[in-house]
Structure formats: C-alpha cells, structure tokens
C-alpha cells in the first residue's frame, strides 16, 4: 500500500516540530502533567503517542494544513484520556492558527465560526455532564485553545491579504506611470521630429535642387544664381536649427520660445517657393478666402501653416512644371480647409529625393486635431491634367480641445 506523498516541510515547521517534541519530553521527564482525575489510558509511554503525532503534524502546518489539523484534533482527543502533556496542547493551538493562516480561503473563512460553535456546544455538554460551576472554566479553556488561535490566524491573514493587495496596486500604479511616461516620451519625440522636418526640409530641398542644377548645367550665370539660392537657404536653415537646438538645451526656461508662425506668414512661404522653384518651371499662387477679422485657435493655425509649408516643399521636390495653388477657406466656428494642388507627373529638371516623412507628419497633425486628411493624385478642373492634391480639414470649435498640442 502506497502512502500519500506530502510536500517537503518548511524549515521553520521542522524547527517548531523539533522544539515541541523536545519540550514535551522534558515535561514528561520532570513528571509534569496537565490532566487530573480519571485517566483511562495511564500507561508509562501512552503520553508520548499524542505528543509524537502532534509534533509530526507540525511538519505539515504550511504544506497540508487541513490534514495537520484533522490528525492533530484526533491526537488532542487521545491526549485527554492520558495524563496529558501541556506541550501537546500548545502545538494544537499552533495547528489551529496555521490552518486559518495557510489554508484555503473557504477554510479560513469557516474555521473561526466552527470553533465558536464547537466551544459553545462543548461548554453546554460539560455543564450538563458535571452540573458544577467548574464546567464553565473547562469551556473557557476550550475556547482559548480553539477560538483564540483561529481568530488570531484570521486577523493575520486579513492583514497579509491587505498588504498583498496594496503591493499589487502599487505595482500596477508604477506600471501605468511607466506606460504614461513612455507614451509621453514617444509623443514628444514625434512632435520634435515633425517640427525638425518642417523647419529644415524646405531649405534642404531647395539646396539639393539648386546644387543639382549647378552641377548639371555648365552656365556661369545659372551656377551663380544657384549658389546664391543655396547660400540663402543654408543660412536660413542653420538659423532655424540653432533656434531649435537652443530651445531643446534650455531646460531652465531662461530663453523665451519663438512665436509660433501663423497663416499671415504663408505669403512669405509663397515668395520663398517662387524663388526656389523658378529653375524647375514652377509658379506659385495663394488664394486666402478666410474672414480676415476672424481669429483661429493657435493649434489649428499652426497646423495649417505647417501643412502649407510641407506641401510647398513636396511640390519643389516632385512637382512637374506648372502652377502650384494654395487655397485656404473656412468660416468662424466651422472648419478650416487647406488645399494645395500641384502638377502631377515627371519633370525633366533636377528633383530632390523624398522619404515620405512629410505626409506622415501632416497626417499626424490633422489626427491630433480630430480633422480629416487626404493626399493623392486627382483629376484637374474641367477634366484637365491630373494634379497632386493635399487637402486638410481642421475643426475650429472653440470648446473642443485637441488631443495633444499639434506641433
């Protein structure tokens, strides 16, 4: 017959079992007993049986608390019919405490009530049997042995569960804080990437186009004109880079941030684009149909300016010869629409390479404001040549906050 395999006992349980067994043997050697009166089992070694069984159950107090308490209860009942050993009683109180602390939640919830009912029933039975006042004292002893350890175990377990819950909540809070920090860092990096691209891409595109023209055309006048444009754009780009780097390095707030560009500065963008796009046969026009007296929310105005700037930069890079038209429309309280159309097709002159980051940045700006964005080839007016159209619809409700600052 195979005996059930129990888990290896904890080190503390083994120490408790050894200490209990040694203490019980010492009391027996000194002839100290705690049961008086009638003792049906009064052999020379009978007291050792409950003591050894109880010490063995101490080994299972954490790994198998239900089994330890059941067998320990039987050993305690056997001890009542012997001269008795005080250490056996003390070890039983520890088994009761461990059963509530380490047992299943259902066992921990029911055991204190079960011990209370058992104590009441035992007290009533003792009073009916002895019909003497000292029966109440025996009932009090039973309550101390059963109810006291069970209630203590329940109290300790509740505090332990509360501590575990608080620790888990703290870990979850720390995890959420780390996720928020990561999202904030990623959002800031994306914002910086958009800003850097919009500030420098226009100047670098013009430099790339005119340097290619200067290398491919062996004309002194053309070369001188291209070098002039290259110098102007490199100086302007360098100034923008220095301003942006200064803002990033100034963590103490000593440097005043530069004012955000507005749609009133689109005229300057058009003028710069005309100078940069002249060698490629590009013409630039602006149609601003807004109400000049109406004010725009700052995030909307900045996003519209950046979209127009990036669209003009893309036209300088990729558009065929022809007209590039920028149209801005909108009514106060409604939505602002920015539409940029440029000739679509191959052009014979030099062109700068593109990475696609500009379209991604424009789409992100519009999404942050809850608007609509589309970019792609469409048929021209009156079924004319195909044009590349960028269209951004930006809501202008005063009471609507953007999901993030659309920079």
Explained architecture:
Mean pLDDT is 79; it is low at 399-407. Helices cover 61% and strands 11% of the residues. Strand 2 and strand 3 (335-343) form a beta hairpin. The radius of gyration is 44 Å and the shape is rod-shaped. The chain has a five-stranded mixed beta sheet, covered by helices on one side. The chain has two domains: 11-174, no CATH class; 263-346 and 355-407, Histidine kinase-like ATPase, C-terminal domain (Heat Shock Protein 90), CATH 3.30.565. The two termini are 78 Å apart. It has helices at residues 11-29, 48-58, 65-80, 86-102, 105-130, 134-216, 220-249, 266-277, 298-318, 357-368, and strands at 282-288, 322-330, 335-343, 372-379, 386-395. It contains ten helices and five strands; from the N terminus they run ααααααααβαββαββ.
Please outline the helices and strands.
Blueprint: H1 11-29, H2 48-58, H3 65-80, H4 86-102, H5 105-130, H6 134-216, H7 220-249, H8 266-277, E1 282-288, H9 298-318, E2 322-330, E3 335-343, H10 357-368, E4 372-379, E5 386-395
Parallel strand pairs: 1-2
Antiparallel strand pairs: 2-3, 3-5, 4-5
Helix pairs in contact: 1-2, 1-4, 2-3, 2-4, 3-4, 4-5, 4-6, 5-6, 6-7, 6-9, 6-10, 8-9, 9-10
């Amino acid at each position: 017959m195979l005996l059930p395999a129990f888990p290896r006992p904890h080190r503390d349980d083994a120490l408790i079992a050894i200490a209990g067994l040694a203490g019980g043997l010492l009391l027996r050697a000194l002839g100290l007993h705690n049961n008086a009166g009638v003792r049906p089992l009064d052999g020379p070694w009978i007291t050792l049986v409950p003591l050894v069984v109880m010490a063995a159950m101490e080994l299972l107090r954490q790994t198998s608390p239900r089994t330890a308490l059941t067998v320990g209860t039987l050993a305690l009942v056997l001890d009542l019919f012997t001269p008795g050993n005080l250490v056996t009683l003390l070890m039983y109180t520890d088994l009761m405490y461990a059963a509530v602390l380490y047992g299943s939640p259902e066992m921990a919830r029911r055991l204190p009530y079960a011990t209370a009912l058992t104590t009441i029933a035992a007290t009533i039975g003792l009073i009916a049997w002895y019909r003497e006042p000292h029966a109440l004292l025996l009932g009090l002893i039973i309550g101390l042995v059963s109810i006291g350890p069970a209630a203590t175990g329940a109290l300790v377990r509740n505090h332990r569960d509360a501590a575990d819950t608080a620790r888990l909540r703290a870990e979850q809070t720390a995890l959420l804080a780390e996720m928020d920090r990561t999202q904030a860092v990623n959002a800031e990096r994306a914002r910086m990437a958009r800003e850097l691209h919009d500030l420098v891409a226009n100047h670098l595109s013009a430099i790339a186009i005119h340097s290619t023209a200067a290398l491919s055309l062996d004309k002194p006048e053309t070369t001188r004109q291209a070098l002039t444009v290259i110098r102007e754009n490199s100086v302007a780009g360098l100034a923008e880079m220095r301003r942006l780097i200064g803002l990033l390095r100034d963590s103490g707030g000593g440097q005043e941030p530069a004012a955000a560009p507005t749609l009133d500065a689109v005229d300057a963008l058009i003028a710069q684009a005309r100078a940069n796009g002249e060698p490629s046969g590009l013409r630039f026009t602006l149609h601003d149909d807004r109400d000049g007296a109406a004010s725009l929310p700052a995030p909307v105005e900045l996003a519209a300016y950046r979209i127009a700037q990036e669209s003009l930069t893309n036209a300088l890079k990729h558009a065929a010869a022809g007209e590039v038209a920028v149209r801005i429309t909108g009514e106060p309280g409604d939505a602002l629409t920015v539409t940029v159309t440029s000739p679509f097709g191959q052009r014979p002159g030099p062109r700068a390479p593109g990475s696609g980051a500009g379209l991604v940045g424009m789409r992100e700006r519009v999404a942050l404001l809850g608007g609509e964005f589309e970019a792609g080839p469409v048929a021209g007016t009156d079924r004319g040549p195909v044009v590349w159209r960028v269209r951004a619809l930006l809501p202008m409700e005063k009471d609507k906050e953007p999901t993030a600052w659309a920079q």
